[in-house]
Design a protein that fits this description.
The chain is of the alpha+beta class. The protein has helices at residues 9-18, 36-44, 63-73, 164-173, and strands at residues 49-52, 58-61, 75-89, 106-110, 147-158, 175-180, 185-191, 224-232, 238-244, 262-276. It has a four-stranded antiparallel β-sheet with strand order 3-10-5-8. A four-stranded antiparallel β-sheet has the order 4-9-6-7. 24% of the residues are buried. The model is unreliable at 21-26 and 203-207 (pLDDT under 50).
Length: 278
């Protein structure tokens, strides 16, 4: 039973009678019992909808009226899409490898630099501008007004030319964490190696080229699937962080020393929601 069914229809009628429309409104206010999904489906299918008033009675809203309502409130467009961010290891101002340790202790942020902005904080050289090849983020560590995400899969992936030993070092160097509102809430998600990427070149034949390693089967379906979707709301501040607790191996105390620059991406897959202006 809905909450409307628990309220006396007499009370609902009095409320609607008291809520007179403004002079420039098209009609009196309506309180409709139809599910929102049913109304949105009628708009999408371009058909009339029989409505049920909360105070009794039924009527039909024609498709033109439905479209008018949608234009006033604005449509929501749903798409399945990646939301991703890339950084380079080791961090360097040039394209020459610095002295080791190549992955010092610290917090390495993803989604901190949007498209069109210098990628120096993401480990890239001075003057490197982020493009849609590195990220599809529109704003730094947040989503813009009118855009949100419902994430169902998470993964960590590397560039196709990356060498197996370099991938292994990055995966072993730290753990992944999700933070909200300036780390007021932090979800520590465990070692980076525990998050499959579902991307990469499998095998080591000359046909496939450069020797490569990847964390998980080279198939986008191999990403970690979440039972409870991660919702990133419009204007919400968030971070995915690669947390490196120490700049040396726990196994023998030696430095992390990469043989080449390596790109690492946090790949999120799910529903992208965009508000279409009315």
């Amino acid at each position: 039973m809905s909450w409307l069914q628990r309220v006396s229809q007499k009370v609902v009628r009095r409320f609607l009678d008291a809520s007179q429309s403004s002079p420039d409104a098209e009609g009196p206010p309506m309180l409709i019992e139809n599910p929102t999904e049913e109304i949105l489906d009628a708009i999408a299918r371009n058909r009339d909808l029989k409505i049920y008033g909360a105070a009794g009675g039924a009527g039909v809203i024609a498709r033109d009226a439905l479209k008018s309502m949608a234009r006033k409130s604005g449509d929501i467009r749903y798409e399945e899409n990646f939301f991703f961010s890339t950084r380079r290891y080791p961090k360097a101002a040039t394209n020459a490898l610095p002295l080791p340790s190549h992955i010092p202790a610290g917090s390495y942020l993803f989604f901190a630099t949007p498209v069109g902005v210098s990628g120096e904080t993401q480990g890239f050289p001075t003057g490197f501008e982020m493009t849609t090849n590195e990220t599809n983020s529109d704003t730094a560590n947040s989503t813009p007004q009118g855009k949100g995400y419902k994430i169902w899969q998470e993964g960590v992936a590397f560039n196709m030319e990356a060498l197996s030993e370099d991938i292994e070092q990055i995966l072993d160097s730290g753990a992944l964490a999700y933070q909200v509102q300036g780390a007021q809430f932090t979800l520590r998600k465990g070692p980076l190696r525990g998050w499959p990427g579902g991307e990469g070149v499998s095998g080591f034949t000359s046909t496939q080229g450069q020797e490569s390693a990847h964390n998980g089967i080279a198939d986008p379906r191999a990403m970690r699937t979440l039972k409870f979707a991660r919702v990133i709301k419009p204007l919400q501040n968030f971070n995915y962080v690669h947390e490196v607790g120490r700049g040396i191996r726990a196994s023998d105390g030696s430095d992390w020393e990469l043989s080449a620059f390596t790109l690492c991406s946090v790949m999120l897959w799910g529903h992208q929601l965009d508000a279409v202006p009315g």
